[in-house]
Design brief:
By secondary structure, the chain is α/β, with parallel strands linked by helices. Helices cover 37% and strands 17% of the residues. It is built from six helices and seven strands; from the N terminus they run βαββαβαββαααβ. It has a seven-stranded parallel sheet with strand order 3-2-1-4-5-6-7, sandwiched between helices. Strand 1, helix 1 and strand 2 form a beta-alpha-beta unit. Helix 1 packs across helix 6 and helix 2 runs parallel beside helix 3. It is globular.
Amino acid sequence: MGRLDGKVCVITGAASGIGAETARLFKEEGATVVGVDLAENSEGDLALQADVTDEGQVEGMYARAREEYGHIDVLFNNAGISPPDDVSVLDTSFEAWQRVQDVNLKSVFLCCKHGIPHLLDTGGGSVINTASFVAVMGEFARQGVRVNALCPGPVNTPLLQELYAKDQEAAARRLVHLPMGRFAEAREIANGVLFLASDESSYVTAQTFLVDGGLSGAYVTPE
């Protein structure tokens, strides 16, 4: 039996990177996956194209998943961006800052607001947010809903490759701070999400879950 047999999991940012790899892993573990992304061709049994910064579209994607499968058990609110114009606070435009807030933070709020009621309706479940303030709020624990924050270090995804494609020196400087000497692979992050989504983490809630190769413990190093 798979660790997610019978569970319906909605994953945002499922067209590539951590989201796509997690969708594949969840399917291997028996889950039914609803993959959501602004881009087409998300991984999953049901691929939905939606803008997770738009409240109506977020509400609609959960309604569609519920209509299709009857219940929702896991929310992996993973969609995020790291555009090249999001740099030092001195150099980042307000427009770029707002765009990052909308995709990386507002979307998590909207996904929790409109996704958690479906978990409550069917007896509980697991919410995993890729680093969000919502993650440290344990308000639904007595109703069977666990909420945790996934805090990955740098991951070898198309997004990271694009960021460092023109600046190999920047990549080398980042690797100085990584005790393991390499970036994470998407499957390594997905394994952490699998733990938080499965019943193996049934007593884990309101936690920040670091999967960073030791980066946070060794960040203050030369260069």
